[in-house]
Amino acid sequence: MKRAGNLYSSIAxxxxxxxxxxxxxxxxxxxxxxxSYKKNLEGNLELIRQQLIxxxxxxxxxxxxRVRDPKPRDICAASFPERVLHHAIMNICEPTLERYxxxxxxxxxxxxxxxxxxxxxxxxxxxxxxxxKLDIRRYFDSIDHDILLSLLHRRxxxxxxxxxxxxxxxxYHLLTGKGLPIGNLISQHLANYYLGWFxxxxxxELHVRYYLRYMDDFILFSGSRxxxxxxxxxxxxxxxxxxxLRLKNNIQLxxxxxxxxxxxxxxxxxxxxxxxxxKKRFRKKYQKYEQKFLGGIWTETExxxxxEPLLGWSFAxxxxxxxxxVIKRYGVLx
Length: 334
Description:
Layout: H1 8-11, H2 14-25, H3 32-39, H4 41-53, E1 62-68, E2 72-78, H5 80-100, H6 114-127, E3 130-135, H7 139-142, H8 145-155, H9 159-170, H10 185-194, H11 196-204, E4 211-214, E5 217-222, H12 225-243, E6 252-255, E7 260-262, E8 265-268, E9 271-274, H13 276-294, H14 300-314, H15 320-330
Antiparallel strand pairs: 1-2, 3-5, 3-6, 4-5, 7-8, 8-9
Helix pairs in contact: 2-4, 2-5, 5-10, 8-9, 13-14, 13-15
């Protein structure tokens, strides 16, 4: 694949920066940081443009907090000006990374979200008796900076752009030279790209026909349990030697007919169901949102803004009766 060049000047283009602001502000136009930035939008975008031109970006201003959804995660959110910069970079660079991605990679890609990944897994389970489900131990914290930069050099030949990536990557580490922050747009795309080499190896060297990945969760399908056990050993070796990654211990090798736990759902050959913990999460979130509305903390608009993605997420599963039960029991009209 030919390396992409001459992209840096496009990142600094005014129209691209304006588009980046719109995308960074999407869904949160009333937040104080967005309103403050918008008051001097032209000046703020010009400041980013000059920082890019002089190759002196103002980066590394992170806010740390913890969420539990469902397990605890430490989120590292960049300042709003940095988020504008991240969108400006990805507006231009995402197509290059997208061209390298295999068809069955389902995170951080247009039209390749949770529902598409679940549907693909269900389709593969119809064609195969066995599945091998794996995920990476502490994935974001384990990403090696040097390896990531070497992989970026395979896709881009633009020196200022590669230097910019290097500076952004260097603003965060858990251990020296390792780690990407969870919660940043660029981190999501780079973390997805980091396993792209592995994707191609699985498809082109292991010759696995039925394989899909959602960030660091991936599943191989086969008619043979023995074949999957053999591939597991090769997968461990590749991840260790080439990407410095380790698999979690919760390796699952089982029949597709028993259901595949994937992304909070349970995927069967002809149906997708909500997992037990996902049902509890749905109910608790629904109750929490309704209570905030009834308590006057949220307006009706804010309630709808939170409820729509929650309900939309549940639509991926055969969950109508459970969803209606929760709405009837805890809804504001019940």
